[in-house]
């Protein structure tokens, strides 16, 4: 889920870019598009746009990864992700 918030002064169309990168900064997956803030009702000062993004995220190996999100060409947030191997469990009955 991606939610972009802004102020009433930011109504309009904004460019958004999402990158999924490995620990060296190499892009494994990416995309770009736009988000549009409409005019909110009278008295409301914050605007918001949401999107549900579904990725088949390629993880070539365990390690550190991150989603990097830029809005209007400026870095907005970096969401780190750590991946590892699933632990196997031996069960005896």
Sequence of secondary-structure elements: EEEEEE
Mean pLDDT across all residues, rounded?
86
Radius of gyration: 18 Å
Query: Biggest β-sheet, characterized?
Result: 4 strands, antiparallel
Which structural class is indicated by helix and strand composition?
Answer: mainly beta
Beta-strand segment tally: 6
Q: Specify the overall morphology.
A: elongated
Q: Which residues form runs of ≥5 with pLDDT under 50? A: none
Number of helices: 0
Gap between N and C termini: 41 Å
Percent of residues in helical segments?
under 10%
Order of strands across the main sheet: 3-2-5-6
Instruction: Give the strand content.
Output: over 45%
Question: Could you describe the 3D structure shown?
Answer:
The chain contains no helices and six strands. About 0% of the residues are buried. The model has no long low-confidence stretch (mean pLDDT about 85). The strands form two sheets. It has a four-stranded antiparallel beta sheet, with no helix packed on it. Strands 1-4 form a two-stranded antiparallel ribbon. A hairpin with a 2-residue loop joins strand 5 and strand 6 (about 75-85). It has a domain at about 1-45. About 0% of the residues lie in helices and about 55% in strands. It has about 90 residues and is an all-beta fold.
Condensed summary:
The protein is an all-beta fold. It has strands at 2-7, 12-22, 27-37, 46-51, 63-71, 74-83.
């Amino acid at each position: 889920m991606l939610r972009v918030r802004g102020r009433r002064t930011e109504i309009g169309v904004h460019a958004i870019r999402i990158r999924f990168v490995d620990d060296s900064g190499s892009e494994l997956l990416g995309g770009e598009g736009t988000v549009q803030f409409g005019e909110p009702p009278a008295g409301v000062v914050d605007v918001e746009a949401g999107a549900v993004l579904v990725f088949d995220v390629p993880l070539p190996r365990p390690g550190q990864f991150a989603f990097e999100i830029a809005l209007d060409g400026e870095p907005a947030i970096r969401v780190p992700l750590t991946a590892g191997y699933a632990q196997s469990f031996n069960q005896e009955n």
